[in-house]
Write a structure and sequence with these properties.
Chain B: It is found in: Cell membrane. Chain B: This is Diguanylate cyclase. The complex is a heterodimer of chains A (about 280) and B (about 350). Chain A has about 280 residues and is mainly alpha-helical. Chain A has helices spanning about 1-10, 10-30, 30-35, 65-105, 105-120, 125-135, 140-150, 150-165, 170-175, 180-190, 195-215, 230-235, 250-279. Chain A has a single domain, classed as MetI-like (MetI-like fold), CATH 1.10.3720. With about 350 residues, chain B is an all-alpha fold. Chain B has a domain at about 125-300: MetI-like fold (Orthogonal Bundle), CATH 1.10.3720.10. Helix content of chain B is about 75%, strand content about 0%. Chain B contains 16 helices and no strands. In chain B, helix 6 runs antiparallel to helix 7, helix 10 packs across helix 12 (about 250-270) and helix 12 (about 250-270) packs across helix 15. Chain B is globular and about 85 Å long. Classes of the chains: A mainly alpha (about 280), B mainly alpha (about 350). At the A-B interface, helix 5, helix 6, helix 8, helix 11 and helix 12 of A face helix 2, helix 7, helix 8, helix 13 and helix 14 of B.
Chain lengths: ~280, ~350
């Protein structure tokens, strides 16, 4: 554990990523408490102000919402949906992959063809179709995003489970009378945890990107709720007036958080690799 | 250790090439992969069919609109066999789809097949151009990084690739519009309009920003593939042999290593089709480029389900075929596979 921490600390980009991530979470979660703004009632009298005007450090948007405050509440939605959808995808994918890899044979073949079929339908297209069918609330976005992005972890964990299931401790557990269910949940899945954790980081990064895409395409959470992608969608109408303050802050926030998660994931992979080599 | 279990890889797309050939050559592998792909396409059609039935009110409400009366819906269902068992309905749907009948658009006064047929070539043009630009950039970048591995330049280019990969395509496009079009006034931000590929090509200035926006994420991914493929090849014996025979390092890299590392990377393009379609969706929406992505987006805005599901079906089949081809090319090209085939 301590060796792992040292290994992680040696990867400077990973540490920087973790710091940036922590700051962004603080910004979104605690920011509105320090810097409270009204993000529900529109204020057309002070709409489209440039940065710095009238006590609005980042200006206001077309409806008069303070842009800095909006960046915070939008961040809450983006991060919440990203983290929970990534977690849901990881859980579903891990169980699916572990069962397929552990059982093997026809069951495995059928389960993995389902994964292939899911991967064949690009997530963003499926998401757009689904958001025309269901009302895209925050909770619904989490479920829908989680249910279209569990496929990659399923493939990864299945590959791990294929090797884990031949290990002596799994064979021994079965010989001692452990049920299949117990073997999968107590032996197979815990021994794939490195892969699961590393992949979960990338899952969250991808989920945050996907939410942004859906919202940018106008099919995400509905006003007055907003997220960073929806802020960009609102900002694009003002791009020709050069209203950069409506575009750069949410865009850079997405890039920062996704980059940070990717760097952290790389750092975690180093940690896991070390353990794999020692074993 | 895993090879000891015969049951493990019954139908294993991810099996290593040596495992494939151990089971009876390329012909057998080809046959198995084609069968698998057919199974996947069938499953995709089941998913699309299920989506069609998940619509509020089912397909009848979908075709007749939200104002349809229960009587109209009953009549429509009887006329179109929707009162039949689901399995029969699915088979009928499958039969229509196989013959190219994807239904009628609610809004376009056009069949879905025609609507896609008119726009698909323009999307292929846009993504094709992005792809060419991207490969022309990614190959030299990846080779350069491999040659200068673990130096500062390699480190920074890798970090830059992660930043580019983490940047949503639409934000990148907006940045380019803001910089090159709005501030500098160099390039138009609106894509060329027109019904055919020729009209689009007649306005090349308008293509620059969309093509560039589509190319950057591909560069980010493929320069990484290219870097690692080149690194693998640089470690091979033939490089040492060529160097020992007195061939200049530069010549070894450009003639031998480049050729050997390029092929697997180009084969990777087959797996990359879904990402490219996704990119086209955003780029076309952002620049108002009249391709299949924009068709899909406007269909989503107006709940034009036949168009939505038709597009999903076409894109998914293309994705399956793309990864099948990539698998086959890789199995053919991998020298270890070839050795095992004889």
């Amino acid at each position: 554990m301590r060796a792992g921490l040292r290994r992680f600390a040696a990867n400077r980009l990973a540490v920087a990523g973790a710091v940036v991530l922590a700051l962004l979470v603080l910004f979104a979660v605690l920011g509105p408490l320090v810097y409270p703004t009204d993000q529900v009632t529109t204020d057309l009298a002070s709409a489209n102000l440039p940065p710095g005007a009238d006590g609005h450090p980042l200006g206001t948007d077309a409806l008069g919402y303070d842009n800095l405050g909006r960046l915070m509440v939008a961040g809450r939605v983006s991060l919440l949906v990203g983290v929970l959808a990534g977690a849901l995808a990881t859980v579903v994918g891990t169980v699916w992959g572990a069962v397929a890899g552990y059982v093997g044979g026809v069951v495995d073949a059928v389960m993995m063809r389902v994964v292939d079929a899911g991967i064949a339908i690009p997530a963003i297209f499926l998401l757009l179709v689904l958001s025309t069918i269901v009302r895209p609330t925050v909770g619904m976005m989490i479920v829908v995003l989680g249910l279209v992005s569990w496929l990659v972890p399923a493939r990864l964990i299945r590959a791990e489970a294929l090797s884990v299931r031949t290990r002596d401790y799994v064979v021994a557990a079965r010989a001692m009378g452990a049920t299949h269910r117990r073997t999968v949940f107590a032996h197979v899945i815990p021994n794939t945890v490195g892969t699961v954790v590393v992949n979960a980081t990338f899952q969250v990064a991808d989920a945050i990107l996907l939410v942004a895409y859906i919202s940018f395409l106008g099919m995400g959470v509905q006003p007055p709720t907003t997220d960073w992608g929806a802020m960009l969608n609102d900002g694009i109408s003002f791009i020709y007036q050069g209203a950069w303050w409506l575009i750069l802050p949410p865009g850079l926030a997405i890039v920062l958080v996704v980059c940070a998660l990717n760097f952290v994931g790389d750092g975690l992979r180093d940690v896991v690799d070390v353990r794999g080599r020692a074993a | 250790m895993t090879t000891a279990i015969p049951a493990a890889g019954g139908a294993d797309a991810a099996a290593s090439p040596s495992v494939r050939t151990a089971r009876g050559g390329f012909g057998r592998y080809l046959f198995r992969r084609v069968l698998q792909s057919l199974a996947v396409v069938l499953l995709v059609s089941v998913i699309v069919f299920a989506l069609l039935h998940a619509l509020p009110g089912g397909p009848a409400r979908g075709v007749l609109g939200q104002q349809a009366t229960p009587e109209q819906i009953a009549a429509f269902e009887a006329a179109n066999g929707l009162d039949q068992p689901v399995v029969l309905q699915y088979l009928a749907f499958l039969g229509r789809t196989v013959t190219g009948d994807l239904g009628e658009s609610y809004l376009l006064n056009q069949s879905v097949a025609d609507a896609i047929g008119v726009r698909l070539p323009k999307t292929l043009l846009l993504t094709g151009l992005s792809l060419v630009v991207a490969v022309l950039l990614a190959v030299p970048i990846g080779v350069y990084q491999a040659v200068r591995r673990n130096r500062a330049v390699d480190y920074w280019l890798s970090a830059l690739a992660i930043v580019a990969y983490s940047t949503p395509t639409f934000f990148l496009g907006m940045l380019l519009i803001l910089l090159l079009s709005q501030t500098a006034g160099l390039l138009p931000a609106a894509a060329p309009q027109g019904s055919g590929v020729a009209e689009v090509l007649a306005q090349p200035a308008g293509l620059v920003l969309p093509v560039l926006t589509g190319a950057v994420p591909i560069v980010a991914t493929f320069s990484r593939y290219m870097r690692s493929a080149t690194l693998d090849n640089l470690a091979e014996d033939y490089v040492r042999t060529a160097r020992a025979k007195g061939t200049a390092y530069r010549r070894v890299v450009l003639r031998h290593v480049l050729r050997n590392s390029l092929t697997p990377v180009v084969a990777m393009l087959g797996y990359y089709l879904p990402v490219m379609f996704g990119g086209a969706l955003v780029v076309e929406q952002l620049f108002n480029y009249p391709g299949m992505g924009l068709l899909f987006w406007s269909a989503a805005q107006s709940s034009d389900f036949p168009v939505l599901l038709g597009c999903v079906l076409v894109i998914s089949v293309a994705t399956v075929v793309g990864s099948l081809l990539a698998d086959l090319v890789q199995a053919l090209l991998d020298p270890r596979t070839r050795g095992g085939l004889r």
